[in-house]
Amino acid sequence: MRELKLSQINDENLTDEKIDSIVYSDIEDDGLSSEYGFVFGNSMLINERVNTSMEAYKKGRIKKIIFMGGANGVSNQDNSTIPEAIKMKELALSLGINEEDILIDDTSNNTFENTENAMKLLPNNINHISIVTSEFHLKRCYAILKKNYPNISVTMIPSKDGFSDRDNWFLSDNSWNSGRSLATYEAHLLVKYAKENKIYDLEIRNLNKERRH
User: Fold this and answer.
1) pLDDT in tens, 18-50
2) Rounded to whole angstroms, how far apart are CA atoms 160 and 45?
3) Between 3.30.470.20, 2.40.10.120, 3.40.50.620, 3.40.50.1970, what CATH number should domain 4-204 receive?
4) What's the pLDDT at 71?
5) Ranges of residues in the chain whose predicted pLDDT is under 50
6) CA distances to 75, 85, 141, 148, 175 from 104, in Å
7) What is residue 164's DSSP assignment?
8) What is the model's pLDDT at position 206?
9) How far apart are CA 136 and CA 26, in angstroms?
């Protein structure tokens, strides 16, 4: 199939191969370093995302980390009143990050608010950032940034969790919060937001290409 923009995709009855292309294509880490790294909150994946950001920090790929997430996000299934950003900061401190290298946005409760609030914490002349989040979430974060901040280049650093990654999401059933349910939901959300002009309308290649195992 020829390349299609997200907004051109019919997302009814998506096959695994199409979900794979929509959600997981073109999310490779380019290996570049940046002054700031955005770490997106998710109450159920805090350990994985903080650990990934710490690896990048200790390697010098990120100098300052912005942890993001309030207490009312969709992933807060235990109704915790502690913002995700605060939980991530505490974990990062226990892992050895310098407190002066941490910034937080503890009020945002979705990815649009995450990016908007975090950008306010950056210098006006910023032209490159890194983003750290789960593989299934990377493309949405990138598309939001590309739509609203087209002059900023973005390095994507994937945080793997062992169940929602590109090489294993399809192994689970569609029960709540399984890798399959997260990837399927994300595919529909990307198409929906592109049609609504809320994110950059990315081109998706190889929609019928066989999934890589």
Assistant:
1) 999 999 999 999 999 999 999 999 988 999 999
2) 10
3) 3.40.50.620
4) 79
5) 73, 75-76, 211-213
6) 18, 6, 17, 21, 32
7) S
8) 75
9) 12
